[in-house]
Amino acid sequence: MTDSPSTTNYFQGTGYALWTPTGGAQRDLGNIVECEQTPSQDKLEHKKTRGGAKRTDFTQYNNQAMQIRIVLDEITAENLGLLLMSDVVENTDGSKTIRLMSKSVITGALEFIGDNDVGQKVHGVYPSVSFGPTGSFSPISGDDFGQIEITGDLLAVTYTDGITDFGQMTLTPQA
Asked: What angle do CA 29, 17, 131 make, to 5 degrees?
């Protein structure tokens, strides 16, 4: 890794994601148009009330959470199933039927593998993800390709060493 400032630290990310549903087989989600991770937390501030004015003398961060948002343009029954909280039934004629909102929770593991040419490659491993409905699907698309947006909550996992986190991310320097 190169210390800043350096043009080798510029980043133009590309990659793909592998989804492993709980109790199921790993599969590629297909082409990803957008992928964002968003951390959140509540900030608790303690105020010192002595000396004529309140002043913050301590802050603590609680209720940590992390979400991942993925926009896909490969409209498969399995990808729609993530959005529509659905089981996918394989029919004898080769078609697939989605059982709309047939699941109350969809959990599994997600892995993102960066394959970009510019900048460091990002590899994310998220051992516990829960997907829920957050976007919409339009069976009619205008001039662009159709897309679906899925959003998952990264769930905290406690490891045998006692550390709790939402997964890990590894950055590999540009070759």
From this structure: 70
